[in-house]
Amino acid sequence: MTVATSEDSPPRGLRNAFRAFGHRDFRLFWSGALLSNTGAWLASLTIPYVIYQETGSALLVGLVAVFQFMPFLVSGPLGGVLADRHDRRRILLLMQTGLMLSSLLVWGVVASGVRQPLVIMGAVACTGVFAGLNMPSWQAFVNDLVPRDDLQSAVALNSFQFNAARAIGPAMAGVLIALVGPSWALLFNALSYLAVILALALIRTRPVITPDPDPGRVHTQFRATVRYVRSQPGIVMAIIISIIVGALVTPLFQFTVVFAGSVFDVGAVQLGLMNAAMGLGALIAIPFIAGWRQVLSLARIVRGSLFAIPFGIVGFALSPNATVALIPLALVGASFLALMSSCNTAVQMIVAPLLRGRVISVRIMFYTVSMPLGSIVMGTLSDQIGPRATVLGAGVLMMIAALGLTVAKGRLQLGRLDDPQDTDE
C-alpha cells in the first residue's frame, strides 16, 4: 500500500486560496481594484438612497438599476469584441478613465442640488455605457495575469476584493452620508478610479491577443458567439444560474434602502451596515470557495449555495429589526459570492481562449439584463403589497429554482459546470 505524501495531495485551504498573490501583476491589479470598487459600492448605495429620500418610491429605486445596467445591452457585445481583438490593459485604461469622468458627472449633478430622479439616472446611464465596454476585458484580464493552474485562485480573489469593497464601501457610505452628505460619497467614488488606473499603468504583463476567427461586424460576431455558447452546456448552465441570481437576489443590494426607510426605520449608518453584512459574508466564504477547489467541484459548491441563499432571503424578509437582519444578509452575501464566482470560473475554464472576451460579454449581458428586470418587478410589487412580502416571494421562488436546477438532467445538469476546456480552434 502506498502512503500519500503532502506532495501527492492537492493544495487546499488558505495556502491554495491565495496562490494568485504570488504574481506581481495580479497583486497590483487586485489592490487598485479594491480601492476602485470600494468607491463604486459607495455610489451604488448613495444613489438609491438619494432617490428614495426624495420620492419614497421603491419602483424608482428599482429604475436606478435599469439606467445603470441596460446600457450593457449596447456596449457589452462591443466590449467583448474589443477584449478579444486588442490589448486588454489598454482597453481597461481607456474605460476606467471614462468611468472616472462619468462618475464625476454623477457627482456634479448631485452636488449641484439636482434631485430630479430622471436627471440623476441619466448621468448614471453614462457610467453604464463605459461599464459595459469595460467588463469583458476586466474579467478576461484576470486570465492574462496568472497561469491556468492559478486561475481558480485569481477568480476567487478577484471576487474577494469585490466583496471586500462591498463590505467597506457601504459602511463608509453610511458614515459619509450621515456626517457630510451624499455628494462626498460620490466624489470619493469618482476619485477612486485613479487607483486602478495607476495599477494598470504599472502592470508589465504582455498583451494576450488571439487571432480573431470572425473579423466581421459586432452584431454578426455576437450571433456567432451565442451559437457557440449554445454548443457548450457548461457555459449555458452558468448563464442560467446568473440570470436567476440576477433577477431574484441582486435586487436585494438596492432593496436594503427600502427596508431601512419603510420597514426598519433606521438611518444611513445602519443602512450601510446592512449592506456591509453581505460583503462580510462573502469574505468569510472566500477561503471555502478558493481554498478547497481541488476537493469540491464547482457543481457541489453551486448546489449547496443554491439551497443556502433562499434561507438568507427569507430570513431577511422576516427579520424584526435591522440588527437581526445582519445575520441572514451575511448568508445571502456568502451564497451569492459562491454562486457568481463559480459561474465565472466555469465560463473561464471551459471557453476556448480565442472567444473568451466575447463569451464573457454574453454572460454579463444576460446577467445585467436580469438585474433591472428583477428590480422593476420587485419595486412595483413592494409599492403594492409591501417590501416584506415581496422579498419573501423572491426567497420562495429562489428555492423553487434551486430544486429545479438540482433535479435537471442531461445538458442542464449542474455537473456540466465542471466540463473540460474547449480546445477547438
TrEMBL record:
Which keywords does this Swiss-Prot/TrEMBL entry list?
Cell membrane, Membrane, Transmembrane, Transmembrane helix, Transport
Record carries keyword Magnesium? no
Membrane topology (UniProt): Multi-pass membrane protein
Indicate yes or no for the key word Cell membrane: yes
Q: Which residues cross the membrane?
A: 28-52, 58-79, 91-110, 116-134, 184-203, 235-261, 267-289, 301-319, 325-352, 364-382, 388-408
Against CDD domains, the record matches this protein to: MFS_MefA_like
Localization per Swiss-Prot or TrEMBL: Cell membrane
Q: Which InterPro entries match?
A: MFS_dom, MFS_trans_sf, TM_effector
Pfam families (alphabetical) = MFS_3
Major facilitator superfamily (MFS) profile domain boundaries? 25-413
Name the record gives this protein: Unannotated protein
Instruction: Tell me which species this is from.
Output: freshwater metagenome
